[in-house]
Amino acid sequence: MNIFYVTGTSSGIGLALINEILKNEDNWVVGYSRRFPLSHERYQHITVDLAAHGAASKVEIPVFDKSAKVVLINNAGMLGDVKPVGMIDNNLLEQTFILNSIAPAILTNRILALYDSQTLPIIIINISSGAGRHPIESWAGYCASKAALDMFTLVAANDLQISRPNVHLISVAPGIVDTPMQDSIREVDSSNFPLGERFKNYKEQGMLSNPHSVAQKILELVANPASPTIVDLRDI
Questions:
Q1: Is 124 helix (H, G, I), strand (E, B) or coil?
Q2: Is 15 in contact with 211 (CB distance < 8 Å)?
Q3: Please, which of 124, 146, 200, 232 could form a disulfide with 173 given CB 3.0 to 4.6 Å?
Q4: How far is Cα 61 from Cα 56, in angstroms, rounded to an integer?
Q5: d(CA 52, CA 102)
Q6: List of residues 6+ apart from 231 with CB closer than 8 A
Q7: Count of alpha carbons within 13 Å of 88, Cβ hemisphere only?
Q8: DSSP character for 70?
């Protein structure tokens, strides 16, 4: 059985991912999110808010002894407070970093420790963003936290390339995807986010990717993990 741990499963890319993963009868999914997304005989849900202090360190991670492959997809993320620096809500800024970079780092660390004695393939996909590689006005928390996720993935991949060649880490920018996050971007007051009109145009002009097509591309990376550590799905 292939074991998939997926965060942020209640909507968007995360929900599309678990639906695609469960099409294969050899796959079992452990999903993490605040809301229960679906009922399925091969889906185990763990309700958690990974933006909360200490949640990633304490949340249950079931271990499966007879796994053929272990996959962690750190998908959960948040845009945070879209305002210029100096006007950002500090609590939201902290939550943005916890969810976008600290939680995936801790979950990666925990999965690698839990399966340390096994030589089975372990694949870790961190859902990053092009915003972590290119600055966007009023997105300081989001851009910086996704940049931190990219760097964590690069260092971890470098750490393990010789000592644990069965482990593959990839940080993926999925492109502009039609998710609830995009809905929230379009609702931001233009006085706080001058680029808001551009994102409205993305939707009106049909430029947003479908979450299911994005999920399929991510699972192609899982099936063929010999790729660069930093990936943009739009280049695939």
A1: strand
A2: yes
A3: 232
A4: 10
A5: 11
A6: 170, 171, 172, 173, 221
A7: 22
A8: E
